[in-house]
Amino acid sequence: MSKILKFLFSRMVIVGLLILIQIGILTFTIWKLSESFLYLYVLFTALSVIVVIYIMSKKDNPSFKLAWAIPVLLVPVFGGLFYLIFGLRRTTKRFRRRINKIHTEGFKYLEQDPQVFKEIEDEDKSISNQVKYLNKYAVAPIYKNTYTKYLSPGEEFFEELKRELRKAKKYIFMEYFIIREGKMWDSILEILEEKVKEGVDVRLIYDDMGCLRTLPYKYYEKLRKMGIKCLVFNPFVPFLSVIMNHRDHRKITIIDGHTAFTGGINLADEYINEIVRFGHWKDASIVLKGEAVWNLTVMFLEAWEFNCGEKEDYNKYKPYVNYEGTFEDDGYVQPYGDSPLDDETVGEYVYLNIINKAKDYIYINTPYLIVDNELVTALTLAAKSGVEVIIVTPHIEDKWYVHLVTRAYYAQLIEVGIKIYEYTPGFIHSKTFVSDDKIGVVGSINMDYRSLYLHFECGVFLYKTKSVMEIKKDFLDTLDKCQLMTLEDCYNEKWYKKLLAAVIRVFAPLL
């Protein structure tokens, strides 16, 4: 009984009810007004028609436009107004102006070493074009003098993270989408407490929506009492607002400016298989040691400035400030961020570039395969051109409707020669690309609309590092635990599931 009461009075349930009440009141008000006043009915219907014209004229993904145009036309009285509340991906001018100003200031600290770029350009023009794209549109230089190590599964990441946290002398910066109290977070928190007592500057940003169900309300107050500087990204309020769409989906830890972790792993027990939620949880991260950490440090400091409003002296946190000696030279490393506020879908374009330039193979791990026409076309063309394309997705889903849509893409991809495997022991949450024994990506970016269009994300582009081959080896080892999906599997799916998947797929951009 106590668990039921705790759930019923949890912040998640209360917030959900408040939002539903607002939607109900709004719907009822529009309905009653339209019923009582014919001219209001005509007005709301006209608004919906105008909204559809606006949607279709936007410079936006066609799938996203179609997903909104259909419900607006089906329910014209409510549709237009609902789109204006939920569908517009624009934030308030103040929100956008403030964050873009901080980005512009941060960009001043990110300069490309021309010699490093020239080395890549002389070696492989197609790679240098990818590097140039990230340099120009994500303001992300590429670096040498950076050691990388691929970490999978989450247990391996957890042990490495604790080892490095204990070495911190000056500062620890952490930015995570989900934190859940339990063995993993409690162990990390214990180390952070110790470091605060040693005089280390410990800072944490967590996403309020991501932690809505996993942390107590105002958890940041507890952390601040411990001496940890803690901020909540885009605090979730139970009011209808488009700003709530933009979440901080990044997973970053930075230690003394010279060591960093990023990838798909949040700070919760399921990520290290301490608890079982969807079978065995397979995930991936990467640790960087060296000059490339600077991109992630600037990314964090920008997020910190945005959330607290205080200016930072970025120069204090550069890689060599707290490190004596030289860093290992291990290929080329380019960490990058993706923001939903600049109308540049960096995460998707990185994936497209890798797919389009692959010569021998592309191996992809993704928890969700809800892709737009551009990605489907690129994958199809690669497979038809003789490139080996293999994609691994989960066998046990975390969200049934998302898994249903993921499977709805299988048939058309398998038909062109793409191999799709499902990770049978459980849920694969890794977001990795590896291609041609020289290119790799590890990050937080899923192959779905939310990651590619709505969230703040990050990734690391790798060229000729040892970790590229580590990603490949792990991928091939994982295939031994996977089930190859066939056209027969797709055709034998129950008819009602296929029908439901077809309907949901139309609205996939809204999931």
From TrEMBL:
Q: Indicate the transmembrane segments per the record.
A: 12-31, 38-56, 68-88, 226-244
Q: Which residues are in the PLD phosphodiesterase domain?
A: 244-271, 424-451
Q: Where in the cell is it found?
A: Cell membrane
Q: Name one GO biological process term.
A: cardiolipin biosynthetic process
Q: Which GO terms describe its molecular function?
A: cardiolipin synthase activity
How would you describe this protein's topology in the membrane? Multi-pass membrane protein
Taken from the UniProt entry, a GO cellular component term is: plasma membrane
Record keywords = Cell membrane, Lipid biosynthesis, Lipid metabolism, Membrane, Phospholipid biosynthesis, Phospholipid metabolism, Repeat, Transferase, Transmembrane, Transmembrane helix
What's the superkingdom here? Bacteria
Look up keyword Kinase and say if it applies.
no
Please state the Enzyme Commission number of this protein. Answer: 2.7.8.-
Task: Return any one Pfam family short name.
Answer: PLDc_N
Q: What is this protein called?
A: Cardiolipin synthase
Gene of origin? cls
